[in-house]
């Protein structure tokens, strides 16, 4: 009798858990859909989020967006005019995010963070401070090599992260960077359908390849030309150390770092440039590897 009673209690508990989780999941997906699909509606009904729905200086509209999306090629650099470069930091948020933000703020520079969806669950507090200085891009949910996945999983990796950032920030996410620089036509098609531009780089700090801070500084210095998009990773101590030299160096080169939306708004690459891929960035060498550490 005791065993039967225990079994019955267990069964009831299991059913309860099942019902609750299902309900929770349904509620969550509905509210996420409402937030990303109807920002105005969201604003009216969720006043606690209204403060961070104002577009920040680092996230301006991109007048050339429709053209860039239509050309449908990865972006390696800006138009190489003017005085702007774009520092980009992949693989956060993490324990070093606040150090990057502090250095950017100290030297009045902007940047772009390509965040990993899963990490945002562990470091949820960084999105808001990031948005004050930077734009946020989609770097997938769990940082897998996308080309090894079926289309449905690629779609999930991009969509879940985009929605998560949008739900938490109230801003549209229109930038995507594939982990390890691994993409194919399926990845490109899915990013395109989600109306995200694929952002690569023409200068690799090589921090994810084990470069120390001296080498990182040398790699970045060699690529300090207008329009450069510079690949860095915020989860390397050597990168943080290198920033102390790199940020003041920008001024001496009469350059400043902007976010990717700021770069694409003020100095977008031409269509001809985009069609040439990395070669469209001029004299800069293309990263020597196809399988990098993005
Ligand atoms: Zn990465």
Structural class: alpha/beta
Low-confidence stretches: 15-53, 284-292
What's the alpha carbon Rg, rounded to whole Å? Answer: 21 Å
- Cofactors and ligands: zinc ion
Helical residue percent?
40-55%
N-to-C CA distance: 60 Å
The arrangement of helices and strands along the chain is HHHEHEHHEHEHEEHEHEHH
Which percent band covers the strand fraction?
Answer: 5-15%
Number of helices: 12
Number of strands: 8
Oligomer: single chain
pLDDT averaged over residues: 84
Which tags fit this structure?
294 residues; alpha/beta; two-stranded parallel sheet; 12 helices; 8 strands; disordered C terminus; binds zinc ion
How would you sum up this structure, described in words?
With 294 residues, the chain is of the alpha/beta class. 47% of the residues lie in helices and 11% in strands. The chain is built from 12 helices and 8 strands. The strands form 2 sheets. Strands 1, 2, 3, 6, 7 and 8 form a 6-stranded parallel beta sheet that branches. Helix 8 links the parallel strand 4 and strand 5. It is globular and about 45 Å long. Mean pLDDT is 84; it is low at 15-53 and 284-292. Zinc ion binds at residues 90-91, 139, 143, 179, 294.
Secondary-structure map:
Blueprint: H1 2-37, H2 39-45, H3 65-71, E1 84-92, H4 97-106, E2 111-115, H5 117-122, H6 127-133, E3 134-138, H7 151-169, E4 175-176, H8 185-193, E5 197-198, E6 203-204, H9 213-222, E7 229-233, H10 237-252, E8 256-257, H11 260-266, H12 271-275
Zinc ion (ZN) binds next to β1.
């Amino acid at each position: 009798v005791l065993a039967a009673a225990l079994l019955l209690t267990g069964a009831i508990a299991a059913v309860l858990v099942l019902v609750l989780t299902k309900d929770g999941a349904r509620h969550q997906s509905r509210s996420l859909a409402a937030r990303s699909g109807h920002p105005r509606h969201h604003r009216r009904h969720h006043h606690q989020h209204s403060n961070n729905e104002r577009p920040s200086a680092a996230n301006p509209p991109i007048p050339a967006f429709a053209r860039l999306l239509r050309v449908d090629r990865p972006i390696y650099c800006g138009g190489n005019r003017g005085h702007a470069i774009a520092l980009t930091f992949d693989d956060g948020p993490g324990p070093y995010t606040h150090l990057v933000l502090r250095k950017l703020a100290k030297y009045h520079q902007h940047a772009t963070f390509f965040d990993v969806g899963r990490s945002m669950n562990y470091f949820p507090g960084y999105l808001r401070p990031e948005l004050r200085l930077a734009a946020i891009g989609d770097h997938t949910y769990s940082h897998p090599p996308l080309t090894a996945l079926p289309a449905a999983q690629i779609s999930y990796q991009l969509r879940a992260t985009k929605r998560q950032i949008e739900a938490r920030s109230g801003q549209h996410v229109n930038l995507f960077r594939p982990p390890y620089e691994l993409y194919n036509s399926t990845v490109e098609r899915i990013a395109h359908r989600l109306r995200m531009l694929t952002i690569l780089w023409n200068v690799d700090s090589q921090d994810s390849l084990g470069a120390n801070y001296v080498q990182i500084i040398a790699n970045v210095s060699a690529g300090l030309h207008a329009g450069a998009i510079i690949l860095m990773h915020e989860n390397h101590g050597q990168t943080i150390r290198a920033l102390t030299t790199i940020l003041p160096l920008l001024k001496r080169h009469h350059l400043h770092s902007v976010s990717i939306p700021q770069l694409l708004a003020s100095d977008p690459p031409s269509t001809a440039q985009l069609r040439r891929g990395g070669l469209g960035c001029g004299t800069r060498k293309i990263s020597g590897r196809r399988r990098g550490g993005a």
